[in-house]
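Task card 7
Instruction: Convert sequence to structure tokens.
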Amino acid sequence: MHHYLAALEKYAVFTGRAGRAEFWWFFAVHLAALLIFTHLAQTAAANVASSVGTLFTIYVLATALPFIGASYRRLHDTGRAGWKHWLIIVPVFGWFLLILWWSEPSQPVRNQYGDAPAPQLKN
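Output:
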């Protein structure tokens, strides 16, 4: 949850780098929230489903910039330009490339986008 909140705090930061743990934890919590909203909307009564749909829309709009920022920072961490995030609009091929790039290890040294992210300590 720490990484999810950290990405929300950096909601409009498109510079710097994000390690795999930061990005993937944010992605996992974000995806879980989207799936929960979708499930609630499908199983709720009509009047409640409308409210859930409204909450879903608000959530998606509120987390769009943090997701884009986290994606940019993750791509920077692998040495790629952040604009490549927009391959997400290309079905299948773009998604495949992004998942592949997001999954690559961090560059261990400073690159053109900044210092390598500090290793996360396990509590």
